[in-house]
Amino acid sequence: MSSLQITTGSPDETEALGACIGSLLTPGSFLALKGDLGGGKTCLTRGVVASLAPQSAHLVASPTYAIMNCYHGSTPVYHFDFYRLTGDDDIADLGFEEYFYGDGVCVVEWSERLAELMPADALTLLFEYGEGDRRRITITSAGQKSDTVLELLAEKLRQQKKL
Ligand code: ADP
Ligand code: MG
């Protein structure tokens, strides 16, 4: 397990970070997004989708009224927003778990609500407000697959002088 922290200064920067992360994901990758409303979770998701299913990126909206949206591209992206769900019972009953270990990339807003359904191998992104339009994003990896993604991300961000 390791982690890195990056501060973005605008929605565009957060979306670009999402695209950068998206380019490193493979089927079975899991992104757990946490933090306050307006933190930038949907914005980052739009970047992930822009990278993996570009024709659909404009459809990634906030707030979402669907609990799950699927975007088809080189790798399918399953975008969940559990804001309105209350507990893991709900989530288990809805049968979402099968997507977590399937053929696509999962991006989950309000992943706090997953409790014990949270996969062991995942990248967790915590969004916190900074001054003005700044958002501090702390990315933590757990598991071998996510550790590798985080290492590659750190390398990319260093190359772009963002880290
Ligand atoms: P969440 O999904 O976490 O509730 P959204 O991505 O829907 O958040 O919304 C983030 C809001 O904050 C948008 O209105 C966006 O324009 C604004 N914003 C301001 N600065 C940033 C930033 N650095 N990164 C992301 N969004 C930002
Ligand atoms: Mg959102």
Description:
The chain has 163 residues and is of the alpha/beta class. 31% of the residues lie in helices and 26% in strands. It contains five helices and seven strands. The protein has helices at residues 11-22, 41-52, 88-93, 97-100, 144-159; strands at residues 2-8, 30-35, 68-71, 77-81, 105-109, 122-129, 135-142. The longest helix has 16 residues, at 144-159. The protein starts with a strand and ends with a helix.
The share of residues in extended strands comes to 25-35%
SSE class: alpha/beta
Q: Distance N terminus to C terminus? A: 19 Å
Q: Helix segment count?
A: 5
Tell me the radius of gyration.
Answer: 14 Å
Bound molecules: adenosine-5'-diphosphate, magnesium ion
Short recap of the structure:
The protein contains five helices and seven strands, in the order βαβαββααβββα. It is of the alpha/beta class and 163 residues long. A seven-stranded mixed β-sheet has the order 1-7-6-2-5-4-3.
Structure characteristics:
single chain, seven-stranded mixed beta sheet, binds adenosine-5'-diphosphate, alpha/beta, 163 residues, 7 strands, globular, 31% helix, binds magnesium ion
Topology of this protein?
Elements: E1 2-8, H1 11-22, E2 30-35, H2 41-52, E3 68-71, E4 77-81, H3 88-93, H4 97-100, E5 105-109, E6 122-129, E7 135-142, H5 144-159
Parallel strand pairs: 2-5, 2-6, 4-5
Antiparallel strand pairs: 1-7, 3-4, 6-7
Bound molecules: adenosine-5'-diphosphate (ADP) and magnesium ion.
